[in-house]
Amino acid sequence: MTEVSLFIAFSAGLISFLSPCVLPIIPGYLSYISGIGAQEVKERGGFSKRAFIASFLFVVGFSVVFTLMGATATGIGSLLREYQDYIAKVGGGLVVFFGLHFAGVLLRPNFLKELIGVASLLLSLFFFNMLSQKVLFDLLGILLVVSFLYLFGFHNVLYRQMRKELRGSVSGFGALIVGMLFAFGWSPCIGPVLGSILLYASQQDTALQGASLLLAYSMGLGIPFLIAGGLLSAFLGFVRSFGKFFGIVEVVGGVLLVLLGVLLTTGKLAEISLLLGGWGS
Fold this sequence. Notes:
Elements: H1 3-18, H2 26-34, H3 38-44, H4 49-79, H5 84-102, H6 111-127, H7 133-151, H8 154-162, H9 174-185, H10 190-201, H11 207-230, H12 232-242, H13 246-266, H14 268-280
Helix pairs in contact: 1-10, 1-11, 2-4, 4-9, 4-11, 5-7, 5-10, 5-13, 6-7, 7-13, 10-11, 11-12
């Protein structure tokens, strides 16, 4: 595993934080785990020690669980090493599905027609000798996985999950517990991105490498959360001003996941990691 793998995982965590269905509810999470209401935020301003400590415990909670998930995913992956190629191909298709979900493409009324159109384009490129048979089969395999998940309504399950929100109030050590529960049940929009990193972690050689990937993901998600907790008043203003960029975050995050899925399926991600690793040595 090289720096590029850790960077991908860290970036995935950052994308999760900035996603349109996570960032707007972060103030609610912070209020929930710190017990600080909106009026108190306006009166305090500046650095909020209580919100920062609660945020820190919350981040530690989900980081521990995510890291353990990474180690476990790699352990499961080692047991299935014999079928690694098949797992990578099907898993890549699943990651592409997550990317399309993240970008909101699955909600398009003509999605299936567009999927057939893409398949027709790939076949045309193959018949014109512009695409190799292996690449064609890999990409068609991705489309079949996406079609299967879509036709059986898995996208509806994901969008229902997006609408769930935490409500209530905790403080102190309770924030650690909430962070762990957050990790087990996901948060809206985190499931697809996190699931993609877990699939990638399952392809690593050791449990330490898988755990490192999920720790990097946790840092990408957790560091901005800590900043938001410490500067809660300023963060509220940032959320309001950043709202106009939510559509861009959706598209960019979705495209990156689709690209990751294609690279996993075709085996190119490992080649890129080895190449960059060679440059860095």
